[in-house]
Amino acid sequence: MAPERRRLARFTRTERAVHWVHATAFLILLGSGLCLYLPSLAEVVSRRPLVKGIHIYTAVAWAVALVVIALVGDRRSLVRTAREIDRFDADDRAWLQRRPAPQGRLNAGQKLNAVITAAFALLFVVTGFFLWYGERDTRFRSPNALLVHDWLMYVSFVLFIGHLFLAVIYPKTRHALNGITRGWVDEDWALQHHRKWAEQLQEHEAPALEP
Question: Computed from CA positions of residues 197, 105, 80, 206, in that sequence, does the dihedral angle turn out positive or negative?
Fold first, then answer.
């Protein structure tokens, strides 16, 4: 009889809520932004004011939702994650150089993706504000804001496709999707892809989840 697989708790409900709020908002903003930007899509939709309203109010709802989650959720887990992302050690640098190295709960690629995502979100907010306010006061209208906003969209789309491929399609990494949907991953998978984190849990005898 095969031994039962152990499950390791990877992400809290608060961390998962932040991820899915951001992902949902990103998809709505991307879709509405493309409808505003591409003439072919704009003709199909044909209701530009409505699409623009969806784009703006989604951005506002995204920011408000993140603040609410931070206020009522598990802030300790968010602080812990932020500290993990901010910490790059020798193993992370080796991993980025494509050399074998044990990884923590987040590997070096995931840390970089989180940093880029946060930076892009801030730039989207700043440039989006000037685009919105520039329509109301021409003194604040800036062609550079539109240029940066558009290029952020292009790069974000490419990063999103890569993220989707690794999370949903690529066999070796798609089990990670379980961590951000259900909160746990199999211990065997964790030992293979995030050995440093899995072994630290074992050392501290952190509770594993029963199947």
Answer: negative
